[in-house]
Structures are given as C-alpha cells and as structure tokens.
Amino acid sequence: QxxxxxSGGGLVxxxxxxxxxxxxxxxxxxTYAVAWFRQAPGNERELVAQIITNGGGxxxxxxMKGRFRISRDMPKKTVYLQMNTLKPEDTAVYYCxxxxxxxSGPQYDYWGQGTPVTVSS
Length: 121
Fold this sequence. Notes:
Structural class: mainly beta
Low-confidence stretches: none
Order of helices and strands: EEEEEEEEEEE
Shape: globular
Distance between the termini: 40 Å
Radius of gyration: 14 Å
Strand content: over 45%
Number of strands: 11
Number of helices: 0
Mean pLDDT: 96
Largest sheet: 7 strands, mixed
C-alpha cells in the first residue's frame, strides 16, 4: 500500500522559512518521481516542484523558482520542500504526490492528505 504523509505546515509570518516533509512507503522510492503541489482556497492546484529520486534531478515552474527547493533523502524515503521568504500568497494546502519516473505529463498516481501552510502577520 502506497502512503505519502506530509508534515511541517503551520502558521508563519511573512519572510519566514518553513520546511515540509513527505515520508513515503509502499513503493520503490528510487524508481519514482515525487512532487509538491499546492492549492489555495478558490484556486486550482498548481505544481511547486518535482524531483526524480534516482539522480535527484529537479523541475520548478518559472513562478516557483528562487524561493522553493525540493530535495530527497534516499535512506529515509523522504522528500522535502524548503520554502524561504514566505509571502501571504503562499498560503495553501501543500500536497505530496508520486508516480513512476518513467511516466510523463501532469498526472500523478498517489497523493498525500496535505499539510496546510498559512502565511500571515
């Protein structure tokens, strides 16, 4: 059974940093791509970052480059999202998702429950 468990969200102030974690199980971690998405109230879900676990290659949409960094810990089968200089518009529920690395396109096979991030003064 594939599981993705996010943690690390919370209430922070503008300018703060936060690191989200996604602990995975139930699949061969080294053969998958793992991504972070976010969805703000009233908005569509959007990709934040993706990592190919084998090799560590990363992809960021242009709008996410600079303040976000995705990384992985192979022994722990965990993917992280480091978020810096947070802004109120980063407020959203952040989701971890996974799919076999050989697949392409925007669809992901497995999803976590999400962790909420609120940026407010």
